[in-house]
């Protein structure tokens, strides 16, 4: 196993700190949350011209591949809960990037990209790829593949414990 340099403050055991911080900083949940914060910051920095968050980019990407998805199906396609998908959709709708249509009343609402949403998503492809490369830059190719494989293993094995279901849409 490699020892990776870290800018996390040292938390060596002391009389006031009996290794609690060092255990905290080494916990997978802490590191995954921190990695997510960094990933989101890098993405938002690279996509600042498009003013997109990772969640918004995800919604636009799924809708590009699967037009007119229902809101619940869209939420599951990204592993979002209903509140999160509604919050993201409201922001995208306010910017004119998506539109919601109801077939029979408000219960069956489908979501689609607008032409402006298509344009912004197309414009965001290069910055999003740059964000991906920037995030993965500290790792060599083998480590990048290993990281993705381990994250897929972890999320796949523990999917039943998630608060929101992840169900990719049918092709």
From TrEMBL:
A matching Pfam family: MarR_2
Residues annotated as domain HTH marR-type: 18-156
Top-level taxon of origin: Bacteria
Entry-linked Gene3D superfamilies: Winged helix-like DNA-binding domain superfamily/Winged helix DNA-binding domain
GO MF term list: DNA-binding transcription factor activity
One BP annotation, GO: response to stress
PANTHER family reported in the protein's UniProt record: TRANSCRIPTIONAL REGULATOR (PTHR33164:SF95), TRANSCRIPTIONAL REGULATOR, MARR FAMILY (PTHR33164)
UniProt-recorded name of the protein: MarR family transcriptional regulator
Organism: Ramlibacter humi
């Amino acid at each position: 196993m490699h020892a990776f340099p870290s800018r996390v403050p040292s938390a060596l055991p002391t009389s006031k700190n009996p290794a609690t911080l060092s255990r905290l900083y080494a916990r997978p949940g802490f590191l995954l949350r921190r990695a997510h914060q960094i990933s989101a910051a890098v993405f938002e920095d690279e996509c600042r011209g498009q003013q997109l968050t990772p969640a918004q980019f995800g919604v636009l990407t799924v809708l590009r591949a699967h037009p007119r998805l229902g809101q619940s199906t869209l939420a599951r396609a990204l592993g979002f809960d209903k509140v999160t998908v509604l919050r993201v959709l409201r922001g995208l709708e306010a910017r004119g990037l998506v539109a919601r249509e109801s077939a029979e009343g408000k219960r069956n609402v489908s979501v689609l990209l607008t032409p402006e949403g298509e344009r912004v998503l197309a414009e965001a492809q290069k910055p999003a790829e740059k964000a991906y490369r920037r995030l993965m830059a500290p790792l060599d190719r083998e480590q990048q593949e290993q990281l993705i494989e381990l994250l897929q293993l972890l999320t796949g094995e523990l999917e039943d414990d998630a608060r929101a279901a992840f169900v990719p849409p049918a092709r």
